[in-house]
């Protein structure tokens, strides 16, 4: 199924264009990294569309507002988990002025190490959110194991029976995806975009 998608010239061009946008983010200033960081924070347990619209709607409060102001702003913008995400955002805010300075040198050297750093340092970030953020700022060697990926693998016959995704189980699924990406001769981050299209018929994320 994926080989058919990868060989679709029109779709492949759209996916590679999106991937190039992520790679350009790598060279962008810290403000762009903050935007992608907050987007990935809001996308967790929510839809991309809801997260992106709430990010744009509440932007000024996300950067400077108190916990109460951030929560009220997200609620007003129609975001579902406004209290929880306000807590995460306000707690992480002290690191945002030097976000790129903190993450980029480590990610340039070792993407797995950078993911561990993000998952351990930033409230509300696990492996999925950290991988998503790193992919969105141009690092393509990590898998974003979300419900769409799990659904795809199950439909393809991969026996995934667990309900919770521990670190070891995440790495197991990532190894499966890495094997698929190697077979198709594409990067993991690009494989994710093809799977996302297969599951949602969109190239966003």
Automatic annotation (TrEMBL):
Listed Gene3D superfamilies: Helix-hairpin-Helix base-excision DNA repair enzymes (C-terminal) (1.10.1670.10), Hypothetical protein, domain 2 (1.10.340.30)
Biological role: Catalyzes the excision of an oxidatively damaged form of guanine (7,8-dihydro-8-oxoguanine = 8-oxoG) from DNA. Also cleaves the DNA backbone at apurinic/apyrimidinic sites (AP sites).
Molecular function terms, GO-annotated: class I DNA-(apurinic or apyrimidinic site) endonuclease activity; hydrolase activity, hydrolyzing N-glycosyl compounds
Listed CDD domains: ENDO3c
Similarity field: Belongs to the type-2 OGG1 family.
InterPro entries referenced in this protein's UniProt entry, alphabetically: DNA_glyclase/AP_lyase_Ogg (IPR012092), DNA_glycosylase (IPR011257), HhH-GPD_domain (IPR003265), HhH_base_excis_C (IPR023170)
Keywords, alphabetical: DNA damage, DNA repair, Glycosidase, Hydrolase, Lyase, Multifunctional enzyme
Residues flagged as site, Important for guanine/8-oxoguanine distinction: 205
UniProt-listed GO biological process terms: base-excision repair
Full protein name: 8-oxoguanine DNA glycosylase/AP lyase
Pfam family of the protein (one): Ogg-HhH
Enzyme Commission numbers on file: 3.2.2.-, 4.2.99.18
Superkingdom of this protein's organism: Archaea
Active-site residues, record numbering mapped to chain: 128, 146
Natural source organism: Sulfuracidifex metallicus DSM 6482 = JCM 9184
Catalyzed reaction equations: 2'-deoxyribonucleotide-(2'-deoxyribose 5'-phosphate)-2'-deoxyribonucleotide-DNA = a 3'-end 2'-deoxyribonucleotide-(2,3-dehydro-2,3-deoxyribose 5'-phosphate)-DNA + a 5'-end 5'-phospho-2'-deoxyribonucleoside-DNA + H(+)
Domain HhH-GPD per the UniProt entry, residue ranges: 42-200
Family matches, as SMART domains: ENDO3c
NCBIfam families: PRK01229.1 (NF002305)
